[in-house]
Design brief:
The chain is α+β, with helices and mostly antiparallel strands. It is 36% helix and 19% strand. It starts with 6 loop residues before the first helix and ends in a 7-residue tail after the last helix. 47% of the residues are buried. Bound molecules: ligand BES and zinc ion (ZN). The site of zinc ion has 4 residues, from α5.
């Protein structure tokens, strides 16, 4: 197991690399990146100055008040100081800071002005020799990371629920710490909740059943691997657990447990497959928490405990690539992390690439290729939507003045993965696999930037071969908009057949004559519905719906694809299904396009507003932050 290098040593190593230590020649004039940096890249989304004082450990002692929707208690931070530093700067947003102590006395502190995106810096004066401070604080009921659910918003309907979502910069709304992915921290926690609830965290559970205390039930946790703070996560509710393998299992509400366990039977196999590709799994357990439907994401790679939407429970294990994705983050993202949010593609592009490799190992090349084709279609659609010269299509993102979360598109995922597939195809799989494994070892428990990735690629894969670097168009991939012309084009024989059937249908063949469809997989259905032309006649829509019962589909991906077709064509009979879908799950990936599509029509605007008003209390802040401007008409696209 790799040892965690002392943070300051890592910081100075990063500085040396980013300053360019002359190991490689500068790129030729025409290949110059659009953005050149001469100083180490700083994280513009954090007030912290970790090169002066750095948080290395967070110890939480918090109680959850479900009536007030508040977490309150203390956070004790361990600090690593440089000799001259006498203040530490932390990130906060909406936190009520009551008192800060260290070295046996109260410390002076100040909260700076509020920035809409970043929140407020918390500056604490540090007397000499103080390397641990304790902050007494309360969260706001509006904390962006936290969603407090009413019993009626859960599967059981009887008890409330709380969960957090930290990525990208939400952790500062519930923990006062240096909220930058470049500041890795270990953590421990004591969490007190009402007696009939169960708390879990992205950490080792020291008291699986909790211990009864005067005020409730207390659960203790610890994570000994240093992680970026966006990975600190909590879930509290009426939770049950089922073990699935030696290192794997699932938590969810009792009513969901059988279905969730059945869907995730392959969990242990996935971990083993990932290890054979990427090296040892360094986090101990890999459990999954299946959340209530309001969870804004498909999945979130919280260490030891991936959080997942209940919409992956399709009944036929057809959507488990999402779990492969979150598992892959145990290497790309959690082990090697983007040092700033501009390098988000290092997390998501690598993960999307690895996800597909895992699907190939577990379910075969046909399924993996189908998924690649579907991904590529999303990439093409995204580039078309943004425009091929839009700088948001650059892998290394320019996020000045923006919330990183507002800039999330398919680019980081799909252009990133396509870049890695292109390298793989060019240098050969064996060669690339060797590089990949080495990359995770070389940067284990570190946070790196795009420039450092490039440095590593040059050193360990390209090895001075300038022609190869040019052939790969590395600079163009990383620093220019659009899709370079050497991008590999995935193909799937299975989906090619589906396209032929789709064309026959469009040319007049009745839906019932598409005989193969009875054995189609979810991916084939996604492709069939997603490839339909923009305009269909009312008769064609009715034929499809009647024959294939598309409006009644329970598979969220297939239903989603169909609802987009329905909105595009104002197919009224699907509107009740649309309303049901929008009001019973809160996954942003599904909500945003559907609301956007509706808001683009004259007839659908009013429905969109009405449905949104009803559904908004179900949604997490991550979704409402994106949707509010769309519904208010302030934003019509992106
Ligand atoms: N880390 C992301 C979730 C995320 C993205 C949080 C951006 C905050 C900002 C997670 O791994 C992810 O990518 N989830 C996807 C599913 C995946 C299969 C593409 C999602 O939620 O749709
Ligand atoms: Zn991801």
């Amino acid at each position: 197991m790799f040892r965690y290098a002392p943070a300051l040593a890592v910081a100075s190593a990063i500085a040396t690399i980013a300053l360019g230590c002359g190991k490689t020649d500068p790129p030729a004039e025409t290949d110059r990146p659009v953005t050149t940096t001469t100083a180490p890249e700083r994280d513009i989304h954090s007030y912290a100055r970790p090169d002066e004082v750095r948080v290395t450990h967070v110890a939480l002692d918090l109680s959850a008040d479900f009536d007030a929707r508040v977490l309150s208690g203390t956070a004790t931070l361990k600090l690593q100081r440089t000799p001259s530093a006498n203040q530490v700067v932390l990130d906060t947003k909406g936190l009520d800071i009551q008192r800060i102590s260290g070295g046996g006395s109260d410390l002076k502190f100040a909260l700076g002005g509020e920035d809409k995106i970043l929140g407020r810096p918390l500056t604490v004066d540090l007397p000499p020799n103080v390397s641990e401070i304790t902050i007494a604080y309360r969260t706001s009921p509006e904390a962006g990371a936290l969603q407090w659910l009413q019993p009626s918003q859960t599967a059981g309907g009887k008890r409330p629920y709380l969960y957090s979502q930290g990525q990208a910069i939400f952790t500062r709304t519930w923990i006062p710490t240096q909220d930058s992915p470049s500041v890795r921290q270990t953590y421990s926690a004591r969490i007190t909740v009402p007696r009939d609830l169960h708390a879990v965290m992205s950490a080792e559970q020291l008291t699986p059943k909790g211990t009864e205390t005067a005020t409730g039930r207390t659960f203790e946790f610890r994570l000994t691997q240093p992680v970026p703070p966006y990975l600190i996560a909590i879930g509290v509710g009426d939770l049950a657990y089922r073990q699935l393998g030696p290192r794997t299992g699932v938590y969810t509400e009792p009513a969901m447990l059988d279905a969730a366990a059945n869907e995730l039977v392959d969990l242990e196999k996935m971990v083993t497959a990932a290890e054979s590709l990427l090296g040892p799994y360094r986090w101990g357990r890999f459990d999954v928490l299946v959340l209530p439907p309001s969870f804004p994401l498909g999945g979130m790679e919280n260490p030891r405990l991936t959080f997942a939407t209940p919409t992956i429970i399709a009944g036929d294990r057809s959507l488990v690539s999402l779990i492969a994705h979150e598992l892959a983050h145990s290497w790309s993202g959690n082990l090697v992390t983007n040092g700033t949010w501009s390098g988000f593609w290092l997390n998501e592009g690598f993960t999307t690439y690895v996800e597909n490799r895992l699907m190939e190992v577990l379910y075969g090349a046909d399924r993996a290729r189908m998924l690649q084709v579907l991904d590529r279609r999303s990439l093409d659609t995204e580039i078309k939507r943004l425009g091929p010269t839009n700088k948001d299509t650059i892998l290394n993102q320019d996020l000045s003045g923006r919330d990183p979360d507002d800039a999330v598109t398919d680019i980081a995922y799909e252009k990133g993965a396509t870049f890695l597939r292109t390298i793989e195809a060019t240098v050969g799989r064996e060669n690339f696999d060797g590089f990949l494994r080495g990359y995770f070892d070389r940067h284990a428990f570190q946070s790196i930037t795009t420039a450092e990735f490039l440095e590593d690629l040059r050193q360990h894969l390209l090895k001075g071969d300038r022609q190869l670097e040019e052939r790969l168009k590395v600079q163009e991939w990383l620093y220019r908009p659009g899709l370079p012309d050497n991008a590999v084009v995935p193909s799937s024989g299975v989906l090619a057949h589906v396209e032929q059937d789709m064309k026959l249908f469009v040319d007049g063949t009745p839906a019932a004559a598409i005989k193969n469809s009875s054995s189609w997989s979810t991916q084939e259905w996604q492709h069939f519905v997603g490839s339909l032309p923009d305009k269909l006649s009312p008769a064609q829509l009715a034929d499809l719906d009647r024959t294939f019962r598309l409006s009644e589909r329970r598979n969220a991906e297939v239903l989603f694809a169909w609802l987009r077709v329905a909105i595009r064509n104002r197919y009224q009979p699907a509107m009740p299904a649309l309303e049901r879908f929008l009001t019973t799950q809160g996954r942003r990936k599904f909500l945003r396009p559907l609301y956007e599509d509706l808001m683009k029509t004259d007839w659908g605007k009013e429905d969109a507003r009405r449905i949104y008003a009803r559904a908004r209390p179900l949604y997490h802040a991550m979704s409402t932050n994106t949707l509010d401007p769309i519904i208010s008409g302030a934003k019509s696209g992106s």
